[in-house]
Amino acid sequence: MANPVTPAKATRKMTARRPAGRIRGWDNRMAFFTLIPSLILLGVFVYGFIAWSGYVSLTNWNSFIPTLTWAGLRNYTAIFSSFRFQSDLRNLVIFTVLFIAGDLVVGMILALLVDQKIRAEGLFRSIFIYPMAISMVVTGVIWSWILNPTTGINLFFHALGFKHVPAWFLSTRFAPSIHLGQIDIGIPVALLAVVIAAVWQMSGFAMAVYLGGLRSVPEELKEASRIDGAGPWRMFWSVVLPQLKGTTATIVVIQAAASLKVFGLIYAMTGSGQDFSTDMPNLNMFQTTFQGDAFAQGAAIAIVLLLLMAAFTVPYVLSMLRGER
Amino acid sequence: MTIRKSTTIALTAVMALGAVGAMGAHGSTATPATSHVSAAKSKTQLQIFSWWTGVASSKALKSLIGVFNQQYPHVNVINEAVAGGAGSNAKAVLASRMEANNPPGTFQVHAGRGTLLSWIAAGDMAPLNSLYKQEGWYKAFPKSLLNMLAVKGKIYAVPVDMQRDNVLWYNPAIFKKYHLTAPHTFAQFFADAKVLKSHGITPLALANHGNWESTLLYSDVLLGEVGPVQYDKLLYGKASWNSAGVKKATQMFLKMMQYTNSDANALHWQQADQLVAQGKAAMNVQGDWAQGYFTTDLHLTPGKGFGWVPTPGTKGTFAMVSDAFGLPSKLSNKAAKTATMDFLKVLGSQKGQDTFNPLKGTFSPRLDAKKTLYDAYSRSAMASFKKDKLVLTIGQGGANPGFTQAFENAMVTLISTKNVSSFVSAVQSAAQTNPLSK
Q1: Which of A98, B174, B329, B336 is disulfide-compatible with B126, CB 3.0–4.6 A?
Q2: Which residues of A touch B211 (CB under 8 A)?
Q3: Contact A192/A91 with Cβ under 8 angstroms?
Q4: What pLDDT does residue A20 have?
Q5: DSSP states of B302-346
Q6: Which residue, among A116, A105, A95, has the nearest Cα to A251 in the 3D structure?
Q7: Which of B243, B206, B170, B182 lies closest to B423 in space, CA to CA?
């Protein structure tokens, strides 16, 4: 560039006349510069604080006054040997599996129903997806009323003449009851009530994603299978469902992340429950940290949760990256 | 299009200039605050830090600030109340401010061996003995209350309100109907409970959604069973929890649990009191904040719609919860220190307390508080407060928070497994990990 030009003019010139390679170089640099602010913010407020939590979890800061002396893995052994945290991990695994399974099944059924070229499809879609717009805390309160064994839906069952009604989230049973160490690793029946509430709230999301998936299955494939004599069931099972693998994986990963983070629902609906049958690591972390002032132990719980979260998301992100290439 | 574009640019420029101007202005107002000459002209600031954001408590705080500003009009009070989490949010904010050597003028803390003790141990509180002497407070408050605010003879905070934890609320109509009297001993309690149960009434309503409610009940049962002297030793870490008395109290507690509603885990404390008010249950053990719920929310008359006695075996003992305020030692500015001391004077004064407490639904811990300003329940509680022995509770900020948390966790397991010996050993190890005295 021989003539001195103002930057604005230069840009205009480049976009107008310069070869494509040059433009891309400029764009890349621009992209990098515009990303710097958010990189700094993320670096400090997300990754910086993760690192800080990790450090705190290895210290003796278990009272109100910060004591940042080295404790090694003592906090981790403390939480892993506690009855409450062991129960939390059991609950988390069971809740995640049941919640995702419920979501996938209900979401798929709803998507299939909405996909039948019905009238007022938009209306039904909105109705099914609407619970997602409600705060988890509100859902928790509503469902704690509905499933309260003495005042809720059980009154309806009583009126119908049922003698044995479920105790819902106050149940103390495990099905099946399998003792391992100090805890029972069966399914706490009380947790099922929470699963119901969570599925009610989130299955609309699965429906929406599945609906998008169903619409993108090529019509020719279905046509071909029809010509080959497949009935609707067979077509769904052997043609449509395999096409929805990616969609399902997306739902599973997103819902697993949501389920690992569950807090508001539990806090509002059941609390820790009878014998920690509905307790979750997040609730434990909150109480340990902010009520018990055991900051290092709370940080240790947070780090364990982070690792669990990474176990779900990292493979997904990697496969996405591979797919892009 | 071009006009609109240029207008937008002009507007943006104006706004940007305005922002710069505002920053400049802010800077210029901020500067004099540090220079001594202008500090005298501008108002001194006093930040009052609390978790009083509820309707009644914020109203009470505002009226107290009103009393203060009448006497000290040159001080600009900033109400820094932090909402949420029953004070846990406020505690977290406070901790970070203390860490940064930026303490508020004064802050809310529970009397007892909880957070207050941590602050004192960390050297963040300045002793107030001279203020107590100057204001004649050594005689204005019960000595046992001052002991709960002191370490080694140095008093670190001024109590502003008083609440009671060991109250058994009951439905007088039910007791009359079955010719029963409200129980004063455990034997009477179980005798009443048997009769009530046979008539299909839940003897003892229990709410346990938050896990602290059953801890409160246990605390009162323990107090009634082992007596205030041994109870104090336990709470001050001077006796082992793994002892016969604690085990017996635990068995008593479990026996009481047999007379409670089965859906306790689904209920919040107000719902348990509602069961009593509606006549579905006969009794409930709860702190005396329940009386505000009975009178304000359910419009019941004290003594008629609801009655109260100390929990079984605790007559003559007052399990207390009290909010107090102190002087942070890291207050840098002398003017700020003076403002805090002036505020504490008003906070501890008869006028300040008698303005604050009736609005908040609590009562003044001063021995000369005006009884006529308070309702029937508070008057009877004030009478007990003056002559009873004062003790702390396991929850409600009375003990090391780590101990309380561990205790509540052990309580969850006790209720479902009913294993007394593993409970007491869990509590004993919690007391060792989280020391109860310093």
Answers
A1: B329
A2: 271-272
A3: no
A4: 58
A5: BTTTBEEEEPTT-TTEEEEE-EEEEEETT---HHHHHHHHHHHHH
A6: A105
A7: B243
Q: Are B322 and B162 in contact (CB under 8 A)?
A: yes
Q: Can you tell me whether residue B159 is helix, strand or coil?
A: strand
Instruction: Fill in the amino acid letter for A2.
Output: A
Token pair of B415 as six digits: 């209720």
* Helix, strand, or coil (residue A263): coil
For chain A, say whether B413 makes contact (Cβ under 8 Å): yes
Alpha-carbon span B119 to B157, nearest angstrom: 11
Per residue in A40-96, pLDDT (tens digit) is 999 999 999 999 999 999 999 988 778 899 999 999 999 999 999 999 999 999 999
> Would you state the structure tokens that stand for residue A158, as one six-digit string?
């009583």
| β-bridge mates for residue B75, sequence order | B44
The dihedral over CA atoms of B88, B89, B93, B95, expressed in degrees to the nearest 10, equals 20
A271 and B210 within 8 Å at the Cβ level: the answer is: yes
Which residues of A make CB contacts under 8 Å with B? Answer: 62-66, 82-84, 144, 148-150, 169-170, 172, 270-276, 287-288, 290-294
Q: Which of B88, B412, B432 to mutate to test the interface with A (most CBs of A within 10 A)?
A: B412
Helix (H, G, I), strand (E, B) or coil at B78: strand
For chain A, domains (ranges, CATH) are 7-56 (no CATH), 85-280+298-324 (1.10.3720.10)
d(CA A144, nearest CA chain B) in Å: 7
| Per-residue pLDDT reduced to its tens digit, B383-424 | 999 999 999 999 888 899 899 999 999 999 999 899 999 999
ipTM above 0.90, yes or no: no
**Encoded tokens for B221:** 């049962």
How big is the CA angle at B313 (ends B308 and B319), to the nearest 5 degrees? 65
Closest among A311, A287, A314, A315 to A301, alpha carbons compared: A287
Q: How many CA atoms lie within 13 A of B267 on its CB side?
A: 22
Residue A14 has pLDDT above 80, yes or no: no
Q: Map residue B110 onto helix, strand or coil.
A: strand
- CATH code at B164-320+390-433: 3.40.190.10
pLDDT at A324: 67
State which CATH number among 1.10.10.10, 3.40.50.720, 3.40.190.10, 3.40.50.2000 fits the domain covering B42-163+322-376.
3.40.190.10
Report the 10 Å Cβ neighbour count for A315: 12
Q: Tens digit of pLDDT for each residue in B245-271?
A: 999 999 999 999 999 998 899 899 999
Residue A59: DSSP 8-state: B
Distances (CA, A) of A253 to A100, A210, A257, A265, B153: 9, 14, 6, 20, 60
Q: How many CB atoms lie within 10 A of CB A204?
A: 22
- Tokens 């009477």 sit on residue: B188
Residue B165 burial (10 A CB sphere; 0-12, 13-18, 19+): buried
